[in-house]
Automatic annotation (TrEMBL):
Name assigned to this protein: LysM domain-containing protein
Domain LysM: 118-164, 207-255
SUPFAM superfamilies: LysM domain (SSF54106)
Naturally occurring in which organism (per UniProt): Gibberella moniliformis (strain M3125 / FGSC 7600) (Maize ear and stalk rot fungus)
Family stated for the protein in its record: Belongs to the secreted LysM effector family.
WSC domain sequence ranges: 270-371
Annotated InterPro entries: LysM, LysM1-like, LysM_dom_sf, WSC_carb-bd
């Protein structure tokens, strides 16, 4: 048997050299980076999985959770938990990175549950449009309640079959069917009302709690696994805006009403959107401190209602969302806060694409308020003469007869200066108006601060015929 020769085409030496050179240039960086990546990842995985002998490590920090935590059990699924707790199943999956498969959960894993809402169980062949018609709401409103149900290429409900029909932690519906009738928030039987019970509390209650010194709303709600909206509905004397300050030590409050004690639905606390704010006008490297109170970070997904509930539990009416995963609370909009009208609430640096010159602290804060007007931080810079002229130029003013300083500060929060100036119509007729601007009138003089007799309202400056001027910009505050 003859062996056939295999003929191969051999390119000229010059072409072979060029081909090798080209391959070297293209593939060498790829191989180097691939080797680097494999070495680094294997190093960290090896040292993470195989600690040194005898080495002990602290447990990982608990996950920050604004509502209930459930420890997964055998046969748990996202849908079964959603039915049990009246929450959307998709949000369970999105909010918990440790859940790799909604239908095959690992046992003994802490799962942060979303806030409650009225729910609907999706049926076969349901679509966003058909469910919206069934519920009597628009498709746009339905998707705003369930943003993961966007009518994608494969399914309108890719992440679970239990969806919200009302805002999270919003309206409570006592007719919701659950697979588990037991619910720790509601009692089956009424217990006798204690002698120290708050007179305004709903008497149809199965469990009472006596407030102690040092208690706050957050600790009470957490201890009894209760939402703020349900707590204030069962105890009308508790203000949803100033929850902690409404608590009276020694008084007993209802922490487990019966399911027939409350109306079919009640509205959650209202809020108003104030806009996007950052600190300073052009300083991109200055951290955004428009709100400077308690905060919760790395919460995903984070809703406006859940952030409001957290802040109101601390009796802080002003709250904001930053970077889509951080909730910040305060009692007022802080000094130097200015509206971000260019980029909105995305990053001011690199158009939100993660510019290396900016960290997450430079992101503007989307500010909301649970009360009107929005409280603003300001400082009195002195008393100025103001008999005839406007004390502030570049003015934008509104006139009212009974306006307050807080209302004026809120109206003028985008200006550097503001004042309540008196307008004299006649020797006996006068009125006050709010005036704002970014420049003081150069012709006015600052009056000395000697103690003199005050007017009827106790305002020494007004008694001297002057006007107090205030600023929301720290660079105009004189050092003592």
């Amino acid at each position: 048997m003859r062996l056939a020769r295999i003929r191969r085409y051999l390119p000229p030496p010059s072409q072979t050299l060029l081909t090798c050179l080209f391959a070297f240039i293209i593939y060498t960086p790829v191989l180097v980076w691939l080797g680097y990546y494999l070495n680094i990842t294997s190093y960290f995985q090896f040292h993470r999985i195989l600690p040194k002998k005898g080495e002990t490590r602290p447990p990982p920090p608990p996950v920050a959770c604004l509502s209930r935590v459930h420890i997964s059990k055998a046969n748990d699924t996202c849908d079964s938990l959603a039915l049990k707790y009246s929450v959307p199943s998709a949000e369970i999956f999105i909010n918990n990175p440790d859940i790799l498969d909604c239908d095959d959960m690992v046992e003994d894993v802490a799962i942060c549950l979303p806030f409650k809402c009225n729910t609907y169980q999706v049926k076969e062949n349901d679509t966003c449009t058909s469910v919206s018609k069934t519920l009597g709401i628009t498709r746009k409103d339905f998707i705003s309640l369930n943003p993961w149900s966007d009518g994608g290429a494969y399914s309108d409900f890719p992440l679970g079959n239990i969806v919200c029909t009302t805002p999270s932690d919003g309206h409570y519906n006592r007719t919701i069917n659950r697979s588990d009738p037991a619910d720790s928030n509601y009692a089956d039987e009424v217990v006798p009302q204690p002698e120290n019970a708050d007179p305004a509390a709903n008497p149809q209650c199965g469990r009472w709690y006596t407030v102690e010194e040092g208690d706050n709303c957050l600790s009470v709600l957490d201890q009894h696994d209760m939402s703020l909206s349900l707590f204030t509905a069962a105890n009308p004397s508790i203000s949803p805006i100033n929850c902690t300050t409404s608590l009276i030590p020694g008084k007993a409050y209802c922490v487990s009403p019966t399911k027939t004690a409350l109306p079919e639905s009640y509205a959650p606390p209202t809020y108003s959107r104030q806009g996007c704010y950052f600190s300073g006008d052009e300083d991109f490297y200055r951290p955004t401190l428009a709100l400077a109170g308690p905060r919760l970070s790395h919460i995903k997904p984070l809703s406006i209602s859940s952030c409001q509930a957290y802040c109101l539990s601390l009796s802080l009416p002003v709250f904001g969302l930053q970077n889509r995963d951080t909730c910040i609370c305060d009692d007022r909009l802080r000094m130097d806060s200015r509206p971000d009208e260019i980029w909105g609430c995305s990053s001011r640096c690199g158009l939100g694409r993660g510019d290396s010159s900016c960290g997450p602290e430079q992101h503007p804060i989307e500010v909301f308020s649970s009360q009107e007007p929005l409280a603003v931080e300001y400082v009195n810079i002195g008393c100025f003469e103001s008999k005839k002229e406007y004390v502030i130029l570049g003015k934008n003013y509104i006139e009212w007869r009974y306006g307050t300083l807080e209302e004026c500060a809120s109206f003028c929060r985008e200006a550097d200066y503001f004042a309540l100036q008196t307008k004299h119509y006649s020797p006996v007729e006068q009125d006050s108006f709010c005036i704002c601007g970014n420049q003081l009138n150069p012709s006015i003089k600052k009056l000395k601060g000697e103690k003199e007799s005050a007017d009827e309202k106790g305002d020494i400056c007004r008694g001297k015929g002057g006007t107090n001027i205030y600023t929301t910009n720290s660079k105009y505050i004189e050092s003592p």
